[in-house]
Amino acid sequence: MDNDAIEQILNKYQGQSRQLIRVMMEIQEENHWLPREVMMKISEKLEVPFSRVLRIATYYKTFSLTPKGRHEIHVCTGTACHIRGAQSVLETVQDLTGIKPGETDAEHKFSLETVNCQGCCTCGPMLKVDEKTHSRISSNEIADALKKYD
What we know:
There is one protein chain. The protein has a four-stranded mixed β-sheet, covered by helices on one side. The model has no long low-confidence stretch (mean pLDDT 93). The protein is elongated. The two termini are 18 Å apart. The longest helix has 12 residues, at 20-31. The protein has seven helices and four strands; from the N terminus they run ααααβααβββα. It has 150 residues and is α+β, with helices and mostly antiparallel strands.
């Protein structure tokens, strides 16, 4: 956890309760998760009840209360991707990373999630790592796609 970066974000928005979700998103992007002590700092600096911070953190799927990997893998399992082989893609990712959806590997390199739709239905099956989309990916191409991430 980079405390200096988190402090900079908090200081930038100090006392601005209307910026709560923005602050939480910036810290999530920097830290990959929202530890309880960080949420307490957010509550103090933005002058909002801790219960409000916690409610938002647990409501929106974008926020994580557990450590995430440096790289997030999303496998689309929506109908179009499912028909085109999403289950095989998911199984291959699980075999290569050693994790299941909702998990993070021991080195905090990868976190794996399934998603229902990424809006690219004609491009399935689809795998997204961070912001890079791999369309029409086959199980044979997944290892090469994942090698690009440290």
